[in-house]
Each structure stands twice: as C-alpha cells, then as structure tokens.
Design a protein that fits this description.
The structure holds two protein chains of two kinds. By secondary structure, chain A is mostly helical. Chain A is built from 13 helices and no strands. Chain B is 41% helix and 20% strand. In chain B, strands 6-7-8-3-9-10 form a six-stranded mixed beta sheet, sandwiched between helices. Chain B has a four-stranded antiparallel beta sheet with strand order 2-1-4-5, with helices on both faces. Chain B is elongated, with a radius of gyration of 28 Å. Classes of the chains: A mainly alpha, B alpha/beta. Chains A and B meet through α9, α10 and α13 of A and α4, β6 and α5 of B.
Chain lengths: 265, 432
C-alpha cells in the first residue's frame, strides 16, 4: 500500500509504457493484411525449418482465420512478443552479468528459483494491485515467469565457452568487452537462442492465466469457454495457442541451430 | 647481452592461500608435506632462466611438471605467486591490465596444444583476430592475414571454418594467427603434441624453416625429448615444478646434471645430435713431416700404436704412417716420411653429425681425423666411439666424450674389431 500511494506516478508511467507497447504491436500486426502476414510466416518457416513446417504454418494459420479467431491470435501474439521482448531485455544482460561473477550467479539463483516455482497466482495478485486489471499486470506476470530460462541459459552458454578459447582470446590482448562480443556471445549463441525459445514458450503458457486478469486474446476465449462450459470454443482458443506455440518454437529453434549449419556448409 | 626474456625466482602455487603456502615452502617444507598439510600444489618452484633474442628455448618435461603453467606465467594468463619476469628488461609481473594487454597484443603471441581456433570465425578471421582487436582497419588486417596464411601454405583455405581442416592444418592456422601480429616472442605450448608423428615431424621442419626467415624468440614447450633436441637452441628440463638443467642439446646429452635428466636421455639416438667435435679426442702422439721413420716408429712403440698421424707446419694434417710402412722404410734406409705417408685417409669437420660418420668409420682402417677448413688437425675420432654408439645406451654413455680410449690405435683395432664386427651390419642398415 505504501508503494502504491507513494510511487503512483512511477507505476502509471510503467503501465502506460507497457500498455502502449502491447497496443502498438497489436496495431502493427493487425495493420498487415492477413494474407501478407501468413505469407511472411510461411516463407520464414520454409527458409528456417523446411518445407514441412511451411505447409503446417500455411494450413494452421488458415484454420485460425476460418475459426474466426484471427484478431484474438494477433492480440495474443502482441502480448507474447511484448513480454518476451521485455524478458530478454533484462534477462540476457542479467545472464551475462551472472556469467562474469560467481557472486552474482549465487545471488540470482535463489531469486530465479523463486520466480519459477512460486505459483503464478501469488504474484498475479500484487501485480493487479499495482496496475489494476488489464493487459499490464498480465504482461508483467508473464515477464516474471518467462525470464528465468533466458537468464539461466545465457549464463550457462557463456560459462560453457571452452576455457582454451578464452585463453586464446586473452593471449592476444582482448579487452573484456571484445572477449564478450567477439568470442563469448557468438559461441554461446545456440544456448542463448534456446533460452529465447524457452522464454517464448513460457509466455505462451501464461496467456490463459493472464486472460483471467483481463489480458484478452486467445486466453480470453479459453477462459470464457471455461466459465460457460462451452467445450467447442474452448478447444478453438486452445488450438490457437498450440498453433502459435508450434510455429514460434520451430522458427526460433532453427535460428539457434543456424550458425553451426552455416559453418558446415 | 641483454636477454629477451628473463625469469627470476618464479613461483606459482595453486590453492586458496598461496602466499602462506609460499612462506612454508620457502622455510623448507617439502612439496608433498605442503600438499598434505594445506592442500596447496606447487606448479612452478623457484624457476629462473633467461632467453636470448632469436633463440628457440625449449622447456621439456612430462605432464604435471609445471611447464604449461610456467609458459602461461610469462604472458600472465596465470598470475605467478612470486618472482619476477622481464621482457626486454622491463618487469612485467606487476604490469597494470591496460599495459599487459598492450604487451600481449604487440610482443607475445601464443600457440596452443589444442589449437584453440575460434570455431565461429573463418580461417582468415581467425588469423586476423589479433590485428582486429588492436583496431587495425579491416582491409589492412585481412591483407596481412592473407599474407601470413600464404607463408604457412593455407592461402586457399581462408574462407573455410576451422572444423573443415585437419589437425596439422589447424595448427598452421594457429601459428599463422600468432605470426599475424608480428610479435617478438612466440610462446608455443606443446604445439605439435596433438598431431600424429608424421605430421609432427613435418611441422617441426616447417617451424625450423620459418624460424630461419622470421628469427623470433621462441619458447617452446614439449614433453618429447627428441622434439626438444631437434628444435632447441637451448633446453630446460623441468620436473615437479623445478628446472633440473638448462643447456644446449649437446650439454644435456653429454653432462646430464641429475639422475632424472640422465634417465631421460639414455634412450636418445645420440648420433643425430652429437657432432664430431663432441666425441673427438686429442691424439696422444704425432710426428712431424720432417721427422724420419725411426722417430715415427719410436713414438708408435712408446704409445703402443699401429699408426701415427703426420703433421706439417701449423699442425696441418699431411697423412698417416702405419707401422708396417715405417718398418719397411727403416729397412730400406729411407730417411724422410714423405715417401711413405698415406694421404688418402678419412677426415671430417668438427660440425659433422656422428650419424654421418658411421659409414666412414665402418669403412676406415685408421682413426678419423677431425680437421678445420685450413686442414689443421683438431682431434681424432677413434672408430669405436662412433660404432659403439650404435649398439646402445649404457655403453654409449661411457664412451661418448670420454677419453677412456685415449686414442690408442692398437688397442682400438684390437678391441673394437671383435667387439663390434658382429652387430655392425644390422645396426647400420637399421640406422638408414
């Protein structure tokens, strides 16, 4: 309560920022004609993970259109992208910090455990308290829930860079920043991409719960269906989430694997 | 002459409280007890040496002897616990990080046992790395990298990635990467240790050829004594963090300082390392060309020789007189030695490898004369010293470089003939 009354402006500003981000992304995504949008995703899927995935993307996205839940899909996508972006924005740098000092890692580890295992409803409540019902607390709760793998896998990836690479780079007189950007991050990229992938998957798993506090989107359909016992529309919403999850998962996964493949070519 | 690198009383102790452990070590506690008591291990134990400009200095030791730790102390990839290191007489052991980076960028480059190439960069980008981090413009650094790649024979591979290359090629890239920054000093940590024997031999040859051109100061780490003897201008033999002996390959072979070194060198094929000058001895007797055959006979009798070298002015070699010829000359009442001296005798230069003397020694009937370019007699090599070396270790130790045989030709022919006639032919083919 103290925080709420004394830092109202701060929370308002945050709230405005997040809400603006979600709405802008949503507006941008809905501005693109559906056919162009689908085409872009299909080409992306084709280039990155092959013909099978392209066909799946095409068919499943048309399915979403025909089920008349495209707008909700876009809303969910905007929510997930905003949350993922925010999680990565803080998660990757935190992971880098954790990889550079054992102390930071030791401090972060219990916090991450806490974030991942604490039942979501427990911090959904204070989020609503600070930001009231709507898309903002939903995004924040999603960020909290999906950030840990980004931190953990960035940290792990950098720590797993072979010591001899570090030694070699150091022996040529690299500065710590050169070491990070020229050696550590590129070599940790597959692991970091896995972290990003996990981050997206976890944010998708939050959409239904986020809908409970008014985030809308596909989660909203599912939540309404649950409360009204409409099995059919519940499945429709659920299927939408699954389809988006699969598409995003395959695309981000193949980005992570891309560098070693390019190397072999 | 100022040394390129000088290491003085260097210590490296691994463990949580190295300074305390150092005090205990200095107060006389043994390494074993230090480890039992405190859990500290001693990597480098009071090591001192100096390396001269343009020298290949080999540090040789088995695994765990501290040689890799030692070389990493020189560019401070590992911080030494105590002691000083000077590069160009500038103390680098307390250098702040900015200056240390400068030193690593410009003066010291390292080649690693497992190559340590960056897998996400092309060969060209790998080689250009050192220049890139110095802020050299891309065009210039890539030109330079391309030129260095050419010298190691990998020009065509510049766009490939490290995992597409064989081990030997990868290490050439490692070497090129180090050479690209044009360092004064190359630190090579068992660079050929991960290569198979044939490739390793090839790389050794190439390194020596390259060194002829670039004249870097090289510190070369190896566990392979043959490699050390082949490449090293000087060798330091390391054991348990200590340097047991430092010296030229010849010194180490002829006068091993400790039993450990001696054990190490017993199996070495000396004939590839030692030279005529190492095993020649002073002739016990010689006659002047102006002496008569009677003088020659008397000297031969006195020293119990079957032949004697004949010298002209300034000890230049004229030839040899055998006892039979001398007796004949006395009978015929000849007065000079000129008529009976045999001039077609085997000679060699002091720098000839013993390996190359083996066929000469096998064919000759008299000792081999070692002469300089002015034909001055420097010493003689009794054949048994050359040939006995073929048979093996222990005996070799006694003969090489000692004067036990004392140039006594009679003894030599008497003993050596039955002694070695048997194993000789097989040994020679074995050498080939």
């Amino acid at each position: 309560m103290y925080l709420r009354s004394n830092y109202r402006d701060f929370f308002r500003a945050c709230s405005g920022l997040i809400e603006g981000a979600v709405n802008n992304i949503e507006a941008l995504l809905s501005f693109i004609p559906i056919t162009v949008f689908i085409l872009v995703l299909v080409i992306l899927a084709w280039r990155l993970s092959g013909r099978g995935m392209a066909v799946f993307t095409l068919v499943s996205l048309f399915l979403l259109v025909s089920m008349n839940i495209w707008d909700e899909t876009i809303r969910t996508l905007a929510l997930v992208l905003t949350a993922t972006f925010m999680a990565l924005l803080s998660g990757v740098p935190l992971g880098i910090l954790a990889s550079r000092s054992d102390l930071t890692e030791n401090i972060l580890r219990p916090i991450l455990d806490f974030m991942q295992t604490m039942p979501i409803f427990v911090y959904l409540l204070p989020a609503v308290m600070f930001f009231s019902i709507g898309v903002v607390p939903a995004v924040l709760a999603t960020v909290v829930f999906s950030m840990p793998p980004a931190i953990r896998l960035t940290n792990l990836g950098i720590r797993q860079v072979p010591a001899e690479m570090i030694e070699a780079a150091a022996s040529f007189g690299s500065t710590p920043l050169q070491m990070l950007f020229k050696i550590q991050l590129p070599l940790a990229l597959p692991s970091i991409m896995a972290g990003i992938n996990q981050c997206i998957m976890l944010s998708l798993s939050m959409v239904v719960i986020a809908a409970m506090i008014g985030a809308g989107g596909l989660g909203g359909i599912v939540y309404r269906a649950i409360t009204r016992l409409q099995i059919g529309s519940g499945f429709e919403g659920g299927l939408g989430v699954v389809i988006i999850a699969i598409i995003l998962d395959r695309i981000t996964q193949s980005v992570g694997k891309e560098s070693p493949e390019k190397k072999a070519a | 002459m100022a040394s390129k690198i000088r290491v003085k009383n260097l210590y490296k102790i691994f463990g949580p409280h190295p300074q305390q452990a150092l005090k205990m070590l200095r107060s006389g506690l043994s390494k074993e007890n230090l480890f039992k008591k405190t859990g500290h291990t001693v990597g480098v134990h009071n090591v001192s040496f100096a390396v001269q400009q343009g020298e290949i200095f080999v540090i040789m030791g088995l695994s765990g002897s501290g040689k890799s730790t030692l070389v990493r102390c020189i560019n401070r990839l590992i911080e030494p616990t105590a002691g000083e290191i000077y590069v160009d007489e500038k103390k680098i052991t307390r250098l702040p990080s900015q200056e240390l980076r400068q030193l690593r960028q410009k003066k010291l480059a390292m080649v690693f046992q497992r190559f340590a190439l960056f897998p996400h960069r092309t060969i060209l980008q790998n080689v250009a790395y050192g220049l890139e981090i110095q802020g050299v413009k891309k065009g210039i650094s890539e030109n330079r990298a391309q030129a260095v790649l050419k010298t190691v024979g990998l020009k065509e591979w510049s766009a490939a990635y490290p995992d597409q290359l064989s081990g030997g090629m990868q290490q050439r890239v490692g070497l090129a990467r180090a050479l690209a920054v044009d360092p004064d000093i190359l630190l090579m940590d068992e660079p050929f240790g991960a290569l198979d024997p044939l490739i390793r031999k090839e790389m050794q040859e190439e390194l020596m050829e390259l060194q002829e051109k670039v004249h870097k100061t090289i510190i070369f780490i190896t566990h392979d004594l043959d490699e050390a003897l082949k490449l090293g201008d000087r060798i330091a033999i390391m054991k348990d963090g200590l340097i047991d002996q430092t010296g030229t390959p010849e010194e180490i072979l002829i006068h091993p300082a400790t039993e450990y070194v001696a054990n190490f060198v017993t199996d070495v094929d000396r004939s590839k390392i030692l030279r005529a000058k190492n095993i020649m001895i002073r002739p016990t007797a010689h006659v002047s060309i102006n002496d008569g055959p009677r003088v020659a006979l008397r000297k031969m009798k006195k020293e119990a020789l079957s032949s004697i070298f004949v010298l002209g002015e300034n000890r230049t070699l004229c030839g040899i007189v055998t006892v039979e010829r001398a007796v004949e000359a006395v009978k015929n009442k000849e007065t000079g030695l000129q008529q009976i001296v045999q001039t077609d005798i085997p000679t060699t230069t002091p720098e000839t490898l013993i390996q190359d003397l083996i066929p000469v020694a096998a064919a000759a009937k008299v000792p081999i004369a070692v002469v300089n370019e002015k034909k001055k007699l420097l010493g003689i090599i009794v054949r048994v010293t050359v040939l006995a070396g073929l048979i093996g270790g222990g005996e070799n130790n006694n003969n090489v470089g000692s004067s036990a045989e004392s140039g006594n030709n009679v003894k030599e022919s008497a003993r050596s003939m039955d002694h070695i006639s048997d194993p000789l032919p097989t040994s020679i083919t074995g050498m080939g």
